[in-house]
Amino acid sequence: MMCLYSHAYLGLYWQREKEAKIEEALNCDPVDIAALRMLATTLGGLVHSRLRKRVWPKLAGVSVFHVPPYKGVPLSDHKDKAQVLLDVNRCGKRIPKCE
């Protein structure tokens, strides 16, 4: 039992260390993009959604404060909407129901 506990402890320790490294890279001025790329591509990725939401805009080079308005085709008018709905309904029938 000690072995399982020690692995769980090491996993939690590893996760906290990686979170700290990601936070450190985010808090640099300017943000350390190279470090974020390296951390994102190593074991465990960006650890959890809270960090992913903060890191991905930096990696993509977009501002979350100045999002341009959508100027594309409204989804309700898209030429492939009917086909997509047919495909989704057909695929949904193949998924087994949980019981």
- The span between the termini is 33 Å
Largest sheet report: none
Low-confidence spans: 1-5
Q: How much strand content do the residues show? A: under 5%
Rounded to the nearest angstrom, the radius of gyration is: 21 Å
What's the helix-strand series? HHHH
The CATH level-2 architecture of the domain at 1-63 is identified as: Orthogonal Bundle
| Helix percent band | 55-70%
Q: Please report the total strand number as a whole number.
A: 0
- CATH topology grouping of the domain at 1-63: Helicase, Ruva Protein, domain 3
Globally, the shape reads flat
Return the structural class.
mainly alpha
Q: Count of DSSP helices? A: 4
CATH class of the domain at 1-63: Mainly Alpha
Features:
99 residues; mainly alpha; Helicase, Ruva Protein, domain 3
What this model shows, in words?
The chain is mainly alpha-helical and 99 residues long. It has a domain of 63 residues: Helicase, Ruva Protein, domain 3 (Orthogonal Bundle), CATH 1.10.8. The protein is built from four helices and no strands. Helix 1 packs antiparallel against helix 2. 5% of the residues are buried. The N terminus is likely disordered.
